[in-house]
Each structure stands twice: as C-alpha cells, then as structure tokens.
C-alpha cells in the first residue's frame, strides 16, 4: 500500500494493492500498519461506520464535527466515483484554509484519512455512488456543522461536467470566515491533542 500526504497537514490518501483474476478482485483499503507508518499512530477507535448513496451530481459537505469531541474519518468509495474534498478548518494550523481533492472509485480503491478538525465533502460523478465512512465518534446532530463548499474564499473547484445538487443544509451553510468569527471552527492544538489519544 502506498501512502501520500495531501497538501493538508496530517491528511493522507492511501492506494492499496489490488489482486485481480478472472473472478474479480480482492483488496484491503485499510491496513493498520500503513496508517501507523504514515500518521504515527495505530488505527483510531472506530465508533461508527456509515454509508451514503448518491446519484450523479450530488454534492455533500463541507461537513465537520464540533471539537471537542472532534471526529477522525477514514473514507472509501466502494461503488461509483467521487471527487473527494478535504478542507483544513483547524484555526492555527499551518495549512488552515487549504483544500485538496482526490478521485475515489472502485477501480483504484483509494481511501482518505482525515484527522480531527478537517472538513469533508464530495461530488458524485456517477449514479449509485456509495461512500463509506469509518468515524471515531458516533453521530450527534448538534455536533455536526458545515461550511459552504461554494465559499469563494475557499475557491473549491467542483467538476465542470456535473450539475451540482446540494441539500438545503449545505446550500445555507455559512462561509469559513463567518464560522471562524463565531468561534465555531476547531482549534489546531486541541485537534492534535485528540489525535494523539488514538
């Protein structure tokens, strides 16, 4: 398995070996040894696994979790294809405000690791796209926040070939500047301290 750090401190994309034959293929999108070597600690405690299904054009995010408790994520796309977006929302981070993107799909079986404090979004490029999330905390509605993927200061580039379809929540999400001014964004040092407990 190959690991590559994104242009956001602590976020990684993992590309596994895929074993193919006439029957199909076998792959392990997550290896604890590879994660440990890349990020410096063992697999985080998985408290929830979730799946979302989306049709082509659906855009979800940018979602993040109030810190504390914070939420680490391991994201994989076992069916379909997405452009996955990772946004550094940790105030005080050397990469605060940066974003990066990776295409996740069944063909490559790539996965993304997001440490505590990062925002996550994706745009579905195919119908019946499934995204899998392993999370370090269980979902608590009042802890789940969002900033706008359309925030011009972020400058996220959505795929030109889709007609974006956003939920009401994501359409109404605030800008990063508004979330920062209101004290809703995570603190970098606090996020790092939570990551160190994994």
Automatic annotation (TrEMBL):
It comes from the Bacteria. Coiled coil: none annotated. One of its GO terms (biological process) is polysaccharide biosynthetic process. One of its GO terms (cellular component) is cytosol. InterPro entries: RmlC-like, RmlC-like_jellyroll, RmlC_Cupin_sf. Pfam families: dTDP_sugar_isom (PF00908). This is Epimerase EvaD.
């Amino acid at each position: 398995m190959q690991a590559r750090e994104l242009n956001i401190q602590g976020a990684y994309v993992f590309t596994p070996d895929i074993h193919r034959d006439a029957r199909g293929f076998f792959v392990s999108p997550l290896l604890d040894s590879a994660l440990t070597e890349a990020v410096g600690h063992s697999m985080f405690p998985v408290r929830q696994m979730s799946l979302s299904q989306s049709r082509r054009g659906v855009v979800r995010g940018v979602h993040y979790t109030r810190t504390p408790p914070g939420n680490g994520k391991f994201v994989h796309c076992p069916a379909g294809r997405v452009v996955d977006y990772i946004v550094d929302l940790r105030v005080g981070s050397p990469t605060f405000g940066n974003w990066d993107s990776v295409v996740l799909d069944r063909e490559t079986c790539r996965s993304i690791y997001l440490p505590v404090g990062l925002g996550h979004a994706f745009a579905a490029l195919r119908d019946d796209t499934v995204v899998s999330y392993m999370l370090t905390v269980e979902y608590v509605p009042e802890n789940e926040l969002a900033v706008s993927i359309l925030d011009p200061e972020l400058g996220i580039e959505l795929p030109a070939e889709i007609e974006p379809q956003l939920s009401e929540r994501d359409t109404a999400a605030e800008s990063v500047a508004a979330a920062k001014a209101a004290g809703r964004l995570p603190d970098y040092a606090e996020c790092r301290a939570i990551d160190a407990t994994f």
